[in-house]
Amino acid sequence: MSSEPEHLTPSDFRPHRVVVLALDGLLPFELGIPHRIFGRPRDARGRHLYEVVTCSIRPPGPVRTDADFAIQVEHGPEALATADTVIIPASYELGPVFEEGVLTDELAAAFARIRPGTRLASICTGVYVLAAAGRLDGRPATTHWADAERFQRLFPRIEVDADVLFIDDGDVLTSAGVAAGIDLCLHMVRRDHGTAIATEVARRTVVPPHRDGGQAQYIHRPVPDPQQSSTTTARAWALGRLHEPIQLRDMADQESMSVRTFTRRFREEVGSSPGQWLTQQRVERARHLLESTDLSVDQVADAAGFGTAQSMRQHLQAALGVTPTSYRRTFRAAGKADRQVTGRT
Q1: Which is higher by pLDDT, 335 or 289?
Q2: pTM of the predicted model, to two decimals?
């Protein structure tokens, strides 16, 4: 949750503990993502909302990377038993995990330390570890688009989606390759503490708080004709009038394209259809208004372009799994509690 229960005093506060599992052959860039994203958020009293530690499956010591240096890890596998969230970055030395889909004895013993109910997340091929541990059977997951077909063959019981940047399946989350780990970690901050805090973390990290589309926009394709128009103008135009009805024809007209050409170009550039993109932007607008204003649910629905409160409820339920009222109650509670404690209004 994003706030403390009312019966807790400031001395009872405990940050959410994120344990990053460093495996031999790991990618240093991906290892740094959780520390950068979760190391930033603070509450209104200046307290870190997360505590991030790195552990190995062996006693403290060096862990090889895919670069020309190793890292010194200060925690052994016992740290996994203290985690609220465990994150597994990619590794190029997974051995039987990657080749056969089974955990090594050492990795299985480390994984057994994780408490039931702990949130699990993977970045890129770190998903192989979750899959080999049986944590993804019958569930949706993603990984780097170039590895998705092989991953699906090795783990046929998993519903692999190679078109998205990340998948949130409640207590298990998976992301696509490399930088998609940033999207995943920002999403978890947003889920835990709301859009405002996640956006501030993104701003300080100099990355977008939410990237449009999925992996489709990064898959290799022939270089397009440089004289071809993009859909940037149409997207900017739509963002300025989300509260109004927007037809596909209206967006295509901004680029002087036919609807068919515009739709194809939009999907190539963004990775989703114009309709999906519009709904996503309206959900984000609604989230912001629910968190930061006192507008009624009907007014938020109108301002975000959903037209009716019922329509907005359906879209937020589909995207976030909660109603507008529940979302507002969760993510405005922290701000109210902080104002009461500090005496600010």
Answers
A1: 289
A2: 0.72
